C-alpha cells in the first residue's frame, strides 16, 4: 500500500501523491523565537523529519522549508498587544534581532542534538517584508482586504471558504469573538495583514500604508508560495495552529488567486500535567534541561513511540521506559555489528525470514499515516527473533543484511542511531578493553613481584585521570576523582 496520510483538509487518510512526480515540497511552521525550546517544540520537527527521511528513501527529492517567526506574533495571538519578541528584548535588554538570533540558534542546536536534519530553507519573516507587502497588495486589489488608519485587514466576509480547514462557521466565530474589537475592523473576524506601528514599536518598515509591520499569518503564505510554488504538496504544524493561523494562511493565498497546499498535517500536543507545554504559560520542560540528564536519542525515541496525532503527556517514568526500550534496540544493533567482525560466510534462514517480516511491517506502519509506534514495534519483534537466531551463530551474509536494515531503517528513516551514538558506544568498548588489558598486565607484574612496573602502570593511569581500586573481585577503574 502506498503512503497514506491523514489530510486535515479532507479529514481522512489519503494517498499522498506529489504534484510533480519525483519531487515533494513541504512547509512546516516553525517557532516564534523568543524563548528556549521545550519538548513540545521537538515533536513536529521530529515527526516531519521522519516523513522527510521516508520520502527520500522512496527516491523522492524533498525540499523542506521551515520558517522562523521573528516579527509580527503578538502577545495575545490576536491583533492587539505587544510583539512577543519585542517584549522579550525589553526584558533582556537586547535588540529584538539579538533575541531572535539567540533563540533561533538555541532551537537549531537542540534539534541538531535530536538528529533532526536542517531545513533546506529556513526563511525568516523579517527577511520577507516585501513579499508580504506584495501579497497584501494583491488582496487589496482583489477586494479581499482593506486599509484602515495605516493598518490593512483581511476581509473574512469577502471569502466564503474561510473556515474550510478548521470547520468553523461564521456563527462560531461571532460567538467567540472578543468583545472589545478594534473599531477600524469592519468585522470582528477580520485579521491584520499589516499593522501600523506606534512610535514606541521597535520593529518597523515603510510600506504603501505608512510605517508598520506585517501580521503574523501573512509570512507563511508569502514564504511557502515563494519557495515551494503554487499548489505545493504539504503544509504542516501543530494542532493549535489549525485555527486561526492556517485557516488565515489558506484564505490569504487563495483569495489572492494562488493555489495553496494540497495536504495538511497537524501534530498533537505534548502535555505536562495535562496542559499544553507552552512558552507563554511556563508549563514546560526545556530541551536543554533534558539534554543535561539524558542522551537526546532517548527523547527522540520517546516522542516517536507515540503516534503524532495523539496527545502525549510527558512523565519522567515514560522517558525512563523509553530509554530502556531504546537501549534494547541499540544493544541489538551493536551485537550484530560485533558478531559480523568474525562470522564465517553463510545464511541463516530464520534471521532472513525475520528480516523479511521486519521490512514488510515497517513499511506498512509508516505508510499508514506515519505510524511510528507500530514501526518501532516491528523493530522490537525483530530483536526477539534476532536474539533467538544469534544463539545459533548466523553467518556473515545474514548478519550483514541485519546490520544494513538497522542502519537504513533505524538510522536512515527513524534517525535513532547517529554516528555520534555508535562511536560513543564503540569508543567506550575500546576504552574498556584497553584499560582492562593494562590492568591485567599490572596484575601479572605484581604476581611476578615486579612492583616497579605495576606501580608505573598505576601512576600513569592516575596521571590520565583513571582511578584504580583493588577490590576482592579484582581491580576496578573509573575516570575522575
Ligand atoms: N506543547 C506542544 N506540543 C506540540 N507542538 C507544540 C507545542 N507547543 C508548540 N508547539 C508547536 O511548535 C511550533 C512553534 O510554536 P510557538 O513558537 O507558537 O510555541 P509555543 O511554545 O506554543 O509558544 P506560545 O506559548 O508563545 O504560543 C508550532 O508548530 C506549535 O504548534
Ligand atoms: Zn505558519
Automatic annotation (TrEMBL):
Indicate which residues form the motif 'KMSKS' region: 276-280
Enumerate the spans annotated as Cysteinyl-tRNA synthetase class Ia DALR domain: 361-422
Which transformation does this protein catalyse, written as a reaction? tRNA(Cys) + L-cysteine + ATP = L-cysteinyl-tRNA(Cys) + AMP + diphosphate
Binding positions for Zn(2+) per the UniProt entry: 29, 220, 245, 249
Fetch the InterPro entries from UniProt. Cys-tRNA-ligase, Cys-tRNA-synt_Ia_DALR, Cys-tRNA/MSH_ligase, Rossmann-like_a/b/a_fold, tRNA-synt_1_cat_dom, tRNAsynth_Ia_anticodon-bd
Quote the record's cofactor note: Binds 1 zinc ion per subunit.
What the entry lists under SMART domains is as follows: DALR_2 (SM00840)
Self-association state and partner proteins as the record states: Monomer.
**UniProt-recorded name of the protein:** Cysteine--tRNA ligase
User: What organism is recorded for this protein?
Assistant: Meiothermus granaticius NBRC 107808
Gene expressing this chain: cysS
Amino acid at each position: 500500500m502506498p503512503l497514506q496520510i491523514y489530510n486535515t483538509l479532507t479529514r481522512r487518510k489519503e494517498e499522498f501523491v506529489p504534484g510533480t512526480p519525483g519531487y515533494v515540497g513541504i512547509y512546516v511552521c516553525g517557532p516564534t523565537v523568543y524563548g528556549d525550546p521545550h519538548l513540545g517544540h521537538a515533536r513536529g520537527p521530529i515527526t516531519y523529519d521522519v516523513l522527510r527521511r521516508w520520502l527520500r528513501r522512496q527516491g523522492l527529492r524533498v525540499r523542506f522549508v521551515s520558517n522562523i517567526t521573528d516579527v509580527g506574533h503578538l502577545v495575545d495571538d490576536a491583533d492587539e498587544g505587544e510583539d512577543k519578541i519585542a517584549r522579550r528584548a525589553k526584558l533582556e535588554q537586547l535588540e529584538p534581532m539579538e533575541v531572535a538570533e539567540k533563540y533561533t540558534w538555541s532551537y537549531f542546536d537542540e534539534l541538531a542534538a535530536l538528529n533532526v536534519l536542517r531545513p533546506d530553507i529556513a526563511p525568516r519573516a523579517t527577511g520577507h517584508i516585501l513579499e508580504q507587502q506584495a501579497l497584501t497588495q494583491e488582496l487589496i486589489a482583489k477586494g479581499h482586504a482593506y486599509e484602515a488608519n495605516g493598518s490593512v485587514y483581511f476581509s473574512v466576509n469577502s471569502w466564503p471558504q474561510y473556515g474550510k480547514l478548521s470547520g468553523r462557521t461564521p456563527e462560531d466565530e461571532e460567538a467567540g469573538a472578543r468583545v472589545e474589537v478594534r473599531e477600524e475592523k469592519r468585522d470582528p473576524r477580520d485579521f491584520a495583514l499589516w499593522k501600523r506601528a506606534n512610535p514606541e514599536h521597535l520593529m518597523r518598515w515603510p510600506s504603501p500604508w505608512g510605517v508598520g509591520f506585517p501580521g503574523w499569518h501573512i509570512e507563511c503564505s508569502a514564504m511557502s508560495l515563494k519557495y515551494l510554488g503554487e499548489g505545493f504538496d504539504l503544509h504542516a504544524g501543530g494542532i493549535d495552529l489549525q485555527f486561526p493561523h492556517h485557516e488565515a494562511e489558506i484564505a490569504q493565498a487563495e483569495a489572492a488567486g494562488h493555489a495553496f497546499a494540497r495536504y495538511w498535517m497537524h501534530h498533537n500536543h505534548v502535555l505536562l500535567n495535562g496542559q499544553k507545554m507552552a512558552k507563554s504559560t511556563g508549563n514546560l520542560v526545556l530541551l536543554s534541561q533534558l539534554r543535561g540528564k539524558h542522551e537526546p536519542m532517548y527523547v527522540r525515541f520517546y516522542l516517536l513511540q507515540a503516534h503524532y496525532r495523539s496527545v502525549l503527556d510527558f512523565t519522567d517514568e515514560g522517558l525512563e521506559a523509553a530509554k530502556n526500550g531504546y537501549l534494547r534496540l541499540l544493544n541489538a544493533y551493536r551485537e550484530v555489528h560485533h558478531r559480523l567482525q568474525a562470522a564465517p560466510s553463510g545464511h541463516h534462514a530464520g534471521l532472513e525470514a525475520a528480516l523479511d517480516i521486519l521490512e514488510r511491517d515497517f513499511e506498512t506502519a509508516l505508510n499508514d499515516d506515519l505510524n511510528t509506534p507500530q514501526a518501532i514495534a516491528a523493530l522490537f519483534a525483530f530483536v526477539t527473533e534476532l536474539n533467538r537466531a544469534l544463539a545459533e551463530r548466523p553467518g556473515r551474509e545474514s548478519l550483514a543484511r541485519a546490520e544494513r536494515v538497522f542502519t537504513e531503517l533505524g538510522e536512515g528513516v527513524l534517525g535513532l542511531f547517529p554516528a555520534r551514538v555508535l562511536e560513543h558506544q564503540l569508543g567506550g568498548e575500546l576504552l574498556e578493553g584497553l584499560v582492562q588489558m593494562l590492568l591485567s598486565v599490572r596484575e601479572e607484574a605484581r604476581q611476578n613481584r615486579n612492583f616497579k612496573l605495576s606501580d608505573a602502570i598505576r601512576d600513569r593511569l592516575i596521571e590520565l585521570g583513571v582511578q584504580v581500586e583493588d577490590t576482592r573481585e579484582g581491580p576496578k577503574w573509573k575516570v575522575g576523582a
